[in-house]
Design goal:
The chain has about 160 residues and is an alpha+beta fold. The protein contains 3 helices and 7 strands. It folds into 2 domains: about 30 residues; about 120 residues, Protein of unknown function DUF192 (Jelly Rolls). The protein starts with a helix and ends with a strand.
Length: about 160
């Protein structure tokens, strides 16, 4: 076997090996995508409150939420879920969802003050919901998110 054939064979093996590594890495990246929710054309990176403990804590005790992030609460069945702002440090918009449709939006829910910390306002939807999306205050108006909008959630 001459040197030219050996180089060609090694070249083919190298290309096949590189292609399989590239394919494996792209499949792994695809499977590691972060969950997202898209509402009225805007995509939010999701943090999901999956347990009752995480749902009770929510975004409380945090100083902020990044601009394109949201917290998603998923409930086993639709109901008139009620939210409050206990231990929150920044205002949020609370988007109530049933299936894949926004059923209600609570705009600019403020954090507690010294005056109302013992009697916090309660936020609940107009109709039963099975999901709630919390985003930074003002974003629902900025992105024109309203009742009837479709929500696409990719987990």
């Amino acid at each position: 076997m001459n040197a030219h054939k050996i180089i060609t064979i090694f070249g083919i093996i190298f290309v096949m090996l590189a292609a399989s590594i590239f394919y494996k890495n792209s499949v792994e990246r695809e499977s590691q995508k972060s969950p997202t929710a898209t509402v009225h054309g805007h995509r939010f990176n999701l943090e999901i409150a999956t347990t009752p403990q995480k749902q009770q804590k929510g975004l409380s005790d945090r100083d902020s939420l990044s601009q394109n992030s949201a917290m998603l609460f998923v409930f086993p069945q639709s109901s008139l879920v009620t939210f409050w702002m206990k231990d929150m440090k920044f205002p949020i918009d609370i988007i109530f969802i049933h299936g894949d449709t926004v059923v209600s939006v609570a705009h600019n829910a403020p954090p507690p003050t010294l005056e109302n910390k013992d009697n916090l306002p309660l936020y609940k939807p107009d109709q039963p919901s099975d999901k709630v999306l919390e985003i930074n205050a003002g974003l629902s108006e900025k992105y024109n998110i309203k009742k009837g909008d479709k929500v696409e959630i990719e987990l």
